[in-house]
Amino acid sequence: MKRRTWIAATAGALALPVLALPSRARAQGWKPERPVTMLVPFAAGGPTDVMARLLAQKLAAILGQPVPVENVGGAGGILGTQRAARAEPDGYTIGLGHMGTHSANPSFYKALPYDPVASFTPLSLFAVNPMVLAAKPRFVRDLPELRDWIGQNKGRLTVATAGTGSVSFLGALLFDRATQAGATLVPYRGAGPALQDTMNGVTDVIVDQAVTVIPQAQGGTLVPLAVTVPQRLPQLPAVPTAAEAGLPALDIAVWNAAYAPAGIPEPRARVLTAAISQALDDPALAARFAEMAIQVTPPDQRGPEPLRALIAREIPRWARLTQEAGVKPE
């Protein structure tokens, strides 16, 4: 499926049926009286934005109020995340974030304008985006062949990234450490140019979110080598997991979560958390996510506590990786 076909599919995915669901959220004791804004710290049209609009449509039906999505992109998600942190903590702002904005950014920036822990009230994880290691056409056929090439060409591999601190940059760091390739990580201004130069053979490989790699792999403009999660993807059934291909250390997925500003009254946070969980239980939403290789968070991993525990593990994980790679915070 080529990129324009995928864009059409995602546009169709936004047209979810709005069901009159009995609301567990409203039973929690607070009912919004005006729209609840969802802040997305990335540009419109990307994976986070598409997920946000699907989720917002369901939340609107559950909460009984519109949930407009506002995109505040820039600086690797920092600007929008800062905006969410500084919003009024009254329950009328939900900020979205992911592994980059809330666990990796402290390793890349000396003075973030927000604290990923103290500035927010965690609401819930809601989705995981697998990543895919892919190569330029006519380079290698599989991961073992790539590793053989690396063994004979130490220090010559180039890996495209969407910029320092991006999730593809983290994937590239993890891949380089796992293979000891001594690779050159080439930063671009976003995933689009990074993918384009890999497809055109300017760079050798890329590690990016499955939702962006799948159309190119299906269209033959990239060669998928491995999936970075424990299960194969239905869209790429012949592509092994990294563990199956002999590289278990290439273990990375982009978790996505919802937050409120710190200081929100606990009953209102509880209502928003319950509404998110209710939306994720909708089979139509799960099906739309699955079409894009996005995995809905299972019930036992939702809510504030699993999210707090995940961030507590993830921040030191990326700190260790960046320190070992010699990355200096800006």
UniProtKB/TrEMBL annotation:
Pfam families: TctC. Residues 1-27 form the signal peptide. Keywords: Signal. The keyword Signal applies. SUPFAM superfamilies: Periplasmic binding protein-like II. It comes from the Bacteria. Belongs to the UPF0065 (bug) family. This is Tripartite tricarboxylate transporter substrate binding protein BugD. It comes from Teichococcus vastitatis.
